[in-house]
Specification:
By secondary structure, the chain is of the alpha+beta class. It contains 6 helices and 9 strands; from the N terminus they run βαααββαβββαβαββ. The chain has one domain: Aminopeptidase (3-Layer(aba) Sandwich), CATH 3.40.630.30. The model has no long low-confidence stretch (mean pLDDT about 90).
């Protein structure tokens, strides 16, 4: 286990099915049902559970950025295009909000945007710049085609909120869905 990011960590697009399966394995380790409440509060968590079919479709539609160390995916940041809006029920309210809000004087839906389908860093690699490296990968590989990346984070996921703010994300709106979960809709100019 490294104690700082180094040249042995590759940041770039997922390279195929093996990377996709490693993404899903890392995701499983970080779902709320698979970690303690205390760990979820202190370390963060992922909300959506993707399956290999959906992840493969996302992979074929746009680069899925990964951090790889010694052949193992240790972090990922998934690109989800607006065309996937109805594929993940928990994300439908986010896409509805995107279609109703303005940012910096323009309707959000008028920006060339995509959404962050999920970002996660393996426990042993947290606090070493991997999160920022994943978003730098997004800027490198997607900023020619897109202006903005938009995502939402449960406000109780304070570690993720802080990490996104550190990268440069701005809060677009805070809203609550019918199940009572409060979400921060956030955006970042990747073309800047």
């Amino acid at each position: 286990m490294p104690n700082s990011p180094d040249s042995d960590i590759f940041f770039g697009p997922a390279a195929g099915e093996q990377d996709l399966h490693q993404i899903l394995a890392l995701q499983q380790l970080n779902l709320p049902g698979n970690i303690s409440r205390e760990e979820a509060l202190s370390q963060g968590f992922v909300t959506v559970e993707h399956d290999i079919g959906l992840l493969t479709e996302m992979y074929l539609s746009a680069p899925q950025i990964v951090a790889v160390h010694n052949g193992q995916v240790v972090g990922y940041a998934l690109t989800m295009l607006p065309s996937f809006a109805d594929r993940v029920p928990v994300l439908v309210p986010m896409f509805e909000r995107i279609n109703s809000l303005s940012w910096k004087g323009r309707k959000l839906s008028d920006w060339r945007y995509y959404t962050m389908g999920q970002v996660c860093v393996a426990k042993d690699y947290r606090g070493m710049g991997i999160f920022a490296g994943l978003y730098a990968g997004h800027r490198r590989f997607l900023s020619q085609q897109y202006e903005v990346v938009i995502t939402e984070v449960a406000t109780r996921n304070t570690r993720s909120i802080r990490a996104h703010e550190k990268v440069g994300f701005e809060t677009l709106e805070i809203y609550t869905v019918p199940d009572g979960e409060e979400w921060a809709l956030i955006g970042w100019r990747i073309d800047a």
